[in-house]
Specification:
alpha/beta, Rossmann fold, Nucleotidyltransferase, domain 5, 2 domains, 20 strands
Length: about 600
């Protein structure tokens, strides 16, 4: 009799369980002894890491089926790795499978295992994750050890470190300290299979919505990771926000731009998480166009998502394919896909010039953001995660963002001193430094000119666009195409990114920078001074951006565009559009006198003696 047949034989209540066990083991003649036999069988299966078989005995295939390909991949990853991120489609078991696994893991060692289930709100957890866990705990074919009370399952409700506890984070809470003190501890007695230390597990459900402070606690918890598996961190989410902390944690070593949606299903992230991507296109229900495993996404549901926007909608990528959409909105000036391909380092052929910029804080919530980079003639570039240099057809002048970070906000004179000292530390010449000189920033800019270098470039955000060209081949200057200098700087960055002339160093932390760059929108503005009837482009104001983004100011993005603006104007007329064959320059013919070698004068006379 195999396990499936045995489980079917004990289904149907106490009498069925007794007769099913008695048929297998005739020496068992009472119901309590039959329960003890099943409990021992489950314990042996768990000790042998056969969690799928144990689940089959406890719940049966209708409650949990370990056979779908997505379930096998999820459980294999959780069992093998200490840090796991599950991103995937809807109705594919991203949350259900870890809950079943963690309950079984606790049943294996209830006296020495602590599980924290972290959710964004208590209401969400009660209605979803913890309610599922409670139902599983109560519906096993034999009684589980311990007791279940509000937000806790364990041996003793007074000992929260020996059970499964719900940690809900109220709205507005940063989440800091929620995992404080959550570490393995020495056991009173050594466990024969699990060793001397207790085990801790953290499950972050819908982890894209979890506040940033929790991730500090996760990092602190992971400081005790060892090969024995005393610590496991499991994160699960639908990949909706490509600019979330979770997306940064799950980013492949070669960047999101290099993920193949059809073949890349698992990878090691740059933050050393093992990432499992659950793609509904590979599920048995979708591939066979029929319900093979009830509860998983159906073919009809998959097709409804695929047909939205001809397979290019963010919903299709997120809820059907389990991957982040990188296209951005239709009005986004700089899509994420463009930023993905701009991660790398230039191979400069000559001595480069260091450059920098600073965006100053004017309003509450704004930050003083300092950016540094380098500008020069490059032969090619090295993409993120690659060891092969991509060479340009011919050397080109390029700009690379090396670092971007916040400086403490200070009073005017003190702020000018701090910025000057930072520039000197990074060997940035004054004439290659761009300073925000809008409103109150004018005082800092004047201070820098007075105490350091009168040649620093001051940028007033209220000014019109300049009379320069973004590329030499442009037919019109910037003020004819863009309403103001802000729009000029943003569109210049967009065009340099498209051309491959602006890169973001692999060392730059991009979460906030990419968020601000990819969310800025634009529209058609008033007509310019150039061709009649031609409207100019206008980037939305900072006020509009902040209203759309919960009051957050685009300070990092502003520092980045100023860095390029200052370098571009210093090296004006050096940037050419890539891929264009430059026509030979036409010159006026030079008038010359008659050639001494033409006509009659070309004859050579030989005198004979």
């Amino acid at each position: 009799m195999n396990l499936d047949e045995f489980r079917a034989s004990i289904e149907g209540g106490e009498d069925a369980l007794y007769f099913g066990v008695h048929a297998l083991r005739p020496e068992i003649t009472t119901y309590p002894d039959a329960v003890s036999f099943v409990r021992l069988l489950v314990a042996r299966l768990l000790a042998a890491n056969r969690y799928g078989a144990a689940a089959l005995i406890l719940w049966g295939p209708r409650v949990f089926n370990p056979h779908p390909e997505s379930v096998k991949r999820i459980w294999t990853a959780i069992n093998k790795y200490h840090k796991v991120i599950l991103i995937g489609a809807s109705s594919m078991g991203k949350s259900y499978c870890p809950i079943v696994y963690l309950l079984l893991d606790w049943l294996r060692d209830p006296e020495g295992t602590s599980v924290k289930i972290i959710s964004t709100s208590e209401g969400h957890a009660r209605a979803n994750t913890f309610s599922t866990l409670t139902e599983l705990y109560r519906s096993t074919i034999i009684p589980c050890p311990g007791t279940q009370i509000d937000k806790f399952i364990g041996i003793d409700s007074k000992e929260q470190d020996r059970g499964i506890a719900l940690v809900s984070i109220p709205a507005g809470d940063t989440g800091k300290g929620r995992l404080r003190g959550f570490h393995p501890k020495p056991r009173a007695q050594r466990h024969p299979e699990l060793g001397d230390m207790t085990r801790v597990r953290a499950f972050l459900d819908e982890c894209e919505e979890i506040p940033y402070g929790v991730w500090d606690g996760v990092d602190n918890l992971c400081s005790n990771i060892d090969p024995s598996g005393t610590i496991k961190v499991i994160c699960a989410t639908n990949p909706k926000d490509p600019l979330s902390i979770l997306a940064e944690q799950a980013e492949p070593r070669t960047g999101w731009a290099n993920v193949d949606i059809d073949t890349d299903l698992e990878w090691e992230s740059r933050e050393r998480y093992h990432v499992v991507r659950v793609d509904a296109a590979r599920s048995e229900n979708v591939q066979q166009r029929r319900i093979v495993f009830p509860g998983l996404m159906s073919f009809e549901g998959f097709e409804n998502l695929r047909l939205k926007a001809d397979g290019q909608s963010a919903e299709y990528f997120c809820f059907a394919r389990g991957i982040y959409s990188r296209s951005g909105t239709t009005r986004s000036l700089i899509p994420l896909s463009l930023l993905d391909h701009a991660r790398g380092s230039f191979v400069f052929s000559r001595t480069v010039t260091n450059c920098g910029s600073v965006d100053l804080a004017f309003e509450g919530g704004d930050s003083v953001v300092f950016a540094s980079g380098r500008f020069g003639l490059a032969d090619g570039w090295l993409p993120l995660g690659s060891q092969k240099i991509i060479y340009f057809a011919k050397p080109a002048y390029c700009c690379e963002l090396l670092s971007i970070y916040e400086l403490p906000a200070k009073m005017t004179v003190a702020q000018a001193h701090a910025i000057r000292d930072e520039c000197r530390r990074l060997n940035i010449p004054g004439n290659w430094f761009a300073c925000d000189a809008t409103g109150p920033g004018q005082g800092v800019a004047d201070g820098l000119r007075e105490m350091w270098d009168p040649g620093i470039r001051c940028i007033n955000w209220a000014e019109a666009a300049t009379d320069s060209k973004i590329f030499v081949e442009d037919k019109r200057v910037a003020r004819e195409d863009y309403v103001d200098v802000v729009s000029e700087m943003w569109f210049a960055l967009r065009r340099w990114l498209e051309s491959g002339y602006f890169l973001i160093s692999p060392h730059v932390v991009t979460s906030r920078l990419f968020s601000e760059l990819s969310k800025r929108e634009y529209r058609l503005g008033p007509k310019g001074p150039g061709d009649a009837g031609v409207g100019r482009l206008l980037v939305e104001s900072k006020r509009e951006f902040k209203l759309r983004n919960k009051g957050k100011s685009p300070d990092f993005a502003d520092a980045a565009i100023m860095l390029l603006h200052g370098a571009r104007l210093n090296a004006e007329q050096k940037a050419f559009m890539p891929g264009l064959t430059r026509a030979p320059e036409r010159r006026k013919p030079v008038k010359r006198g008659p050639s001494p070698w033409g006509g009659e004068q070309s004859r050579v006379v030989i005198h004979e003696n």
